[in-house]
Design a protein that fits this description.
Layout lengths: L9 H9 L6 H18 L3 H6 L5 E4 L6 H12 L3 E5 L15 H21 L1 H24 L4 H12 L10 H6 L14 H13 L7 E9 L3 E6 L2 E6 L12 E9 H15 L3 H15 L1 E5 L14 H17 L2 E2 L6 E2 L4 E6 L11 H5 L3 E4 L5 H9 L5 H11 L3 E4 L1 H17 L6 H17 L7 E4 L1 H15 L1
Parallel strand pairs: 1-10, 1-11, 2-7, 7-10, 12-13
Antiparallel strand pairs: 3-6, 4-5, 8-9
């Protein structure tokens, strides 16, 4: 994508989503407006900005129609912290399980990893330079040991030591005196200076000449500043003062690892970059980004929307989860190991099939906090045909890339794609409707034999036609009848 999300209009955002998701125009429009409104809000004066809250979204539609994919692609476009959670994994406070605030803490942790990755990229040139310098020195030490190189500095030191031994006159060893101005190998041949050797090996390392050569690297690892403890709300992480006297969790430790130069380079780049990162500033930026641009996608919301008839049991817990969700979505302060986070401006996207329950079964206050409600359409045969060919990451393209690795060209005729789409649609009608996920089942059954034979017994080009599709899919279509 050539433009940043700040430059994209809602129409352009929808166009970007169209590259990966077929149909669902209403849902795409809703999330595009929500994303653009976040940028619009950032352009306002701070006093006005604080008053504008995000308009949270509720997506309704059967499984496999693109609810999760829309939210995931949206977060990628926005380069925003994003997590997906399932409402059924949460329990009311007092029950055994995860509390709803844990999703906010997970969002912050995701934001920290996102910021760290960006900082690493910013520091990559400096870190790579330092990594190559360390590798060149390690290679030079190996080379000096292999050739038995004696440096003139070492000879001078040897003469000095000999002069301290009673009864030994260094002048009796003229060969030391003659050679102490030059570096020599164990065979007495002239050797490269340390500077020249390191410089040469660095160039060779950058060219990949020593990629498979093994070296031993030493990396510093910071001690953990947190420990896990049990609390009434479940497992939490507690901060530890790493500066405390005799604190076993603080400080840092060195560890060594033998690896190829290629592997060691990746290890050292990350280590050198982390040494130059300010952990506190990263945490502050991550908290700010999670607060201002974080997206939490709550799936299976319909499973906690059942109305209870009074009494006790799982229905009460479902309503309890809704009551616990309400303050988080309304706006509250949630403590995390990286600091407290305000949830007022986090964008919440709820989703569910709502084929048994309806949005009206949610408690009224929660409905009010999900004001934008969009229904996603079920996918039909024509949609499946488009899904097989149009998206950037279409399933047919994925299988073609996988077989190309084995030297096999895979081609689908148009009629074959239509037949695959028809089979997927028919299976959804006869069995459980799982939307576009049915295409995974159909294509795997169709191509399983080819994928198995590909390394040894398969032609350089395979054309999938209607006859091939009908023969391979007949067994699973017959079973569904």
């Amino acid at each position: 994508m050539s433009q940043s999300i700040e430059q994209l209009t809602p129409r352009q955002i929808v166009k970007e989503l169209d590259k990966y998701i077929i149909g669902q125009a209403a849902a795409k429009k809703a999330v595009a407006v929500a994303l653009r409104n976040r940028w619009r809000r950032q352009q306002l004066p701070p006093a006005d900005r604080q008053e504008i809250l995000p308009k949270n979204i509720l997506m309704m539609g059967p499984t496999g129609v693109g609810k999760t994919e829309i939210a995931r692609r949206l977060s990628t476009l926005a380069r925003a912290p994003f997590i997906k959670v399932e409402a059924t994994k949460f329990t009311e406070v007092g029950y055994v399980g995860r509390d709803v605030e844990s999703m906010v803490r997970d969002l912050v942790a995701t934001s920290v990893r996102l910021v760290e990755a960006e900082k690493l990229e910013q520091l990559r040139d400096i870190a790579e330079d330092a990594a190559y310098a360390r590798i060149a020195n390690l290679l030079a030490e190996q080379e000096e040991e292999r050739l038995g190189i004696i440096r003139h500095g070492s000879l001078g030191h040897a003469m000095d030591v000999m002069g301290r031994i009673p009864g030994v006159d260094p002048e009796q060893f003229p060969e030391f005196k003659e050679d102490q101005a030059q570096d020599v190998t164990k065979d007495g041949d002239p050797a490269e200076s340390r500077e020249d050797l390191v410089a040469r090996l660095r160039v060779e390392a950058e060219q990949g000449i020593h990629a498979k050569r093994e070296i031993t690297v030493e990396v510093e690892e910071k001690g953990s500043s947190f420990m896990q403890v049990f609390t009434p709300g479940g497992m939490e992480e507690m901060g530890i003062d790493t500066n405390a006297f005799n604190n076993p969790f603080g400080g840092s430790k060195q560890f060594t690892r033998t690896a190829t130069v290629e592997e060691a380079f990746a290890i050292l780049v990350e280590a050198e970059a982390k040494q130059r990162m300010d952990e506190n500033s990263i945490n502050r930026e991550a908290l700010h980004r999670a607060e201002q641009s974080g997206i939490i996608f709550i799936d299976e919301l319909d499973k906690v929307a059942m109305k209870s008839g009074g009494g006790s049991g799982p229905e009460v817990s479902r309503e309890g989860v809704q009551r616990d969700l309400l303050p988080v979505i309304e706006g509250s302060t949630v403590p995390s190991k990286f600091g407290s986070i305000q949830t007022d401006h986090i964008l919440f996207i709820g989703a569910g099939a709502f084929h048994i329950s309806s949005p009206d079964d949610l408690i009224p206050e929660l409905q009010g906090r999900l004001p934008i409600q969009v229904r996603l359409d079920s996918l039909g045969e024509d949609d499946f045909t488009r899904i097989l060919t149009e998206p950037k990451s279409a399933l047919t393209k994925q299988y073609q890339q996988l077989l190309e690795v084995e030297g096999t060209e895979l081609e689908f005729t148009k009629e074959a794609l239509d037949e695959i789409a028809h089979a997927a649609s028919e299976l959804n009608e006869k069995t459980e409707n799982i939307g576009a996920r049915r295409l995974h089942t159909v294509l795997e059954a169709l191509l399983e034999g080819l994928m198995f034979d590909a390394p040894e017994d398969i032609d350089s080009k395979v054309v999938i036609d209607v006859k091939f599709v009908r023969e391979r899919l007949k067994p699973i279509l017959d079973r569904s009848s």
